[in-house]
Amino acid sequence: MNDRITFEDVSKFYGEILGVNRVNLSIPPGITSLVGPNGSGKTTLMNLMTGLVRPTRGQVQVLGYKTDDPEHLFRIVGYSTQFDAFPKGLTGFQFVYSYLRLAGRDAQSSEQLAWRALERVDLTDAATRNIAAYSKGMRQRIRLAQALSHDPKVLVLDEPLNGLDPLARSEMIGVFRAAAAQGCYVIISSHILHEVDVISDQVILLSNGYVVAEGPIRSVRSEIQEHPTQILIRCDRPRELAGKMIEDAHTIEVSIHPDGRGLLLKTRDADRFYLALNQIALNGIEIESVVPADDDVLSVYGYLIGNEEVVR
Amino acid sequence: MMSVWWPQIKAVIRLELKKTFLAKRGLWIYLVAALPVLLFIAYAVATSNQHSRSARVARRNEKPLTYQDLLAAKAGMTREEVAAILGKPSLMLHWAENRPMGPQTALHVLHEEYRYSDGANDLFVELADGKVEAIHIREAYNLGQDSIMFAGVFQFFFLRLAVFFGCLGVFMNLFRGEILDRSLHFYFLAPIRREVLMAGKFVAGLLATCTIFVTSTLLQTAAFVWHFPPGARDLYLYHNHGLEHAAMYVGVTVLACIGYGAFFLIAGMLFRNPIVPTAAILIWEAVNPFLPAVLKQISVIYYLKSLCPVDIPSAPGTPALLALLISNPDPVSVPVAVLGIVMVALVALYVSSIQVRRMEINYTSE
Fold first, then answer.
1. Which residues from chain A sit within 8 angstroms of residue B18, using beta carbons?
2. Hey, are the CB atoms on A47 and B363 less than 8 Å from each other?
3. CB A144 within 8 A of CB A172
4. Among B72, B131, B206, B355, which is 20 to 30 Å from B223 by CA?
5. Are A158 and A81 in contact (CB under 8 A)?
6. CA of B341: how far to CAs of A121, B157, B209, B305, in Å?
């Protein structure tokens, strides 16, 4: 059995409107984030990999299963959609329980799995209330509970952190990480880029229906040659360090950090920079920390789509 | 695979039945199912009142009368001959008429109307100048006429309108309603074959419509026989095919739900606007008698008409086109009719199963 989620030359058009075009992807286990503004094709990609829409061209497979085979596909896939509508008249428990019964499970195991899923999203207290009375965050969590309920190998989560308070977000991120640590494929789309940045093993950057980059975020950043690398250096004597660094031929720009306790440097050759910095450190300037300042999702996305205002 | 599919179908049925029976948007279906029942209840109440009046008239008769006594009165008899047979009437009306005979002359005519009753059937005797001119008998019940009336209501209101639109309301919403509510993805995200999902929804729709409309058919039958005197009721039910007819009406109702249900299931998948397929199916069913033999068979009403136990005769003078709509000139045998509906439904379900596999979730385009 294939161990990847694969898109082979996949295009999807809604009439004459482009959903995604010529997508080729091979998604490994771990947390993969789909990043892009509204209309970039994130939800279309998720709907394609769950068979809710069919590709106009190309083929999608999830761990070897075709997406037009829901009977087998959804035994390994759980999808928390963005659709904020539920079958009428169901309580939170009934919503998850019914889903498990639809899978053909017996009443007892469905009940056990439903309660376990509700516990994972901290909704046991509200389980017997009608979903129509839930807040937006609770509706988000009940969708997550449904997606998680059958312990799927692949979790597809469309904007799963929307509507959640900071504590719930943190808890949910913990759930995603735990799933990824167990070898699951967790596909997340989110507008909350700094949170995606923290949890993602790899990212897929989308713009106007096209995949503009994919892979681990740092390797994506290193492939962008036309933009100099930004590095933040914390040290005790930033002005003196700035004077020394500007002498390096590959340094393009140096500026003192607004808080006066470090400097921000742009270089075309990060490797040479690190060698030079080692030399300087030997000469008595105490370096507290050296961190890349623009290899986060937001910056990379800004570089790729040509909107540098996105970059801090 | 059935070991997996059957629990899945049951799960779909559980969810769908609750929605179908309790949906606010489906309350009108109960109303159309109840309308013929209310009609027969009203008829039974009116007939019972009539019986009470007849009983009161009979109590005032000079002597007890039987139905045979009432039939003994004939046109041309004199007032005295009538009184000799039936006694003094319990109700009598009279009035005088000046019937013009020429420019200056008029004939004075004394009109009388006598009413007799045996307690159930009423006899109206019209006399002019002491001679019987006309006789009317109003029977308490007439099994033949009442059966035709029931058949007429069943065929032309219940089957063609109530069951037709009831099935539209239930089956069309199985998928279309979910799309409008934006909740169809809930089913499409479960590990269930789309065809199994469709089968589950169809069976749920069938259970719901059969429960509603078979109940209506049984209540109509109960209301229909309610006004019969006990002896007549037993005669109708046990010796005059009453129970057999009732069973056939129930069977026809079930087959109508199967046939129309299958049509509207696929219509709900193919069309966004229900008016278009509804009008098309309604017209197709209405013009069925005028279609060529091959096309007639792709219809539900063609088979249902053959299964109805009572033929409705056209009244003399009915226009030929209307007579063709009322009558069933080329009925098919019961096995062929049942098989025909099942085949039509299976073809519709097969097309639905292809369509359901192609369905995508794209609520924004709806």
1. 89
2. no
3. yes
4. B206
5. yes
6. 50, 20, 16, 11
Mutate to test the interface with A, among B186, B201, B363 (most CBs of A within 10 A): B186
In the block, tokens 């509207």 appear at B264
Enumerate the β-bridge partners of residue A222: none
Given an 8 Å threshold on Cβ–Cβ distance, is A14 in contact with B4? no
- For residue B5, list chain A residues with Cβ-Cβ distance below 8 A: 104
Which has more pLDDT, A267 or A293? A267
Residues of A in contact with B15 (CB under 8 A): 87, 98, 102
* Reported confidence tier of residue A224, pLDDT bands at 50, 70, 90: low
CB-CB: which of B7, B22, B361 is closest to A52?
B361
Cα atoms found within 13 Å of the Cα of residue A242, Cβ hemisphere only: 17
Note whether B358 contacts A54, CB cutoff 8 Å: yes
Write down all domains in chain A, each with its CATH number in brackets: 5-221 (3.40.50.300), 228-293 (3.30.70.920)
- Nearest CA distance, A47 vs chain B (angstrom): 8
Start-to-end Cα distance in chain A: 43
The secondary structure of residue A228, as a DSSP letter, is: P
Only one residue has tokens 């009317």, namely B136
**Residue range A218-223: mean pLDDT, rounded:** 66
Whether B190 and A72 lie within 8 Å, measured CB to CB: no
pLDDT for A305 equals 65
Per CB distance under 8 Å, which residues of A are interface residues toward B? 14-15, 47, 50-54, 68, 70-75, 79, 81, 83, 85-89, 98-99, 101-106, 146
Which chain A residues have a beta carbon less than 8 Å from that of B19? 87-89
Q: In what order do the strands lie in the sheet with A17-27?
A: A17-27, A5-14, A57-62, A65-66
Q: Provide the token pair at B278.
A: 């509804």
Does A152 score more than 50 pLDDT? Answer: yes
Q: Which of B189, B354, B357, B364 to mutate to test the interface with A (most CBs of A within 10 A)?
A: B189
Residue contact B188–A99, C-beta within 8 A: no
Answer whether A8's CB lies under 8 Å from A177's CB. Answer: no
Rounded to whole angstroms, what are the CA distances from B307 to B55, B237, B247?
A: 39, 19, 11
pLDDT by 10-residue block (mean), chain B, 366 residues:
86 91 88 95 89 86 86 90 88 86 82 89 91 88 83 92 94 91 93 96 96 96 85 80 91 96 93 87 85 83 89 72 66 89 93 94 72
> Hey, what long-range contacts does A260-264 have (CB within 8 A, 24 or more apart)?
A261/A234, A261/A235, A262/A232, A262/A233, A262/A234, A262/A235, A262/A238, A262/A288, A263/A232, A263/A233, A263/A235, A263/A238, A264/A230, A264/A231, A264/A232, A264/A233, A264/A293
Q: Where are the domains of chain B?
A: 2-49+142-365, 55-138
> What ipTM did this prediction achieve?
0.78
Tell me, what amino acid is at B50? Q
In this prediction the pTM is 0.81
Report the CATH fold assignment for B55-138.
Answer: Beta-lactamase Inhibitory Protein; Chain:B, domain 1 (3.30.1450)
Find chain A residues with C-beta within 8 A of B4's C-beta: 104
Alpha carbon distance A5, A180 (integer Å): 15
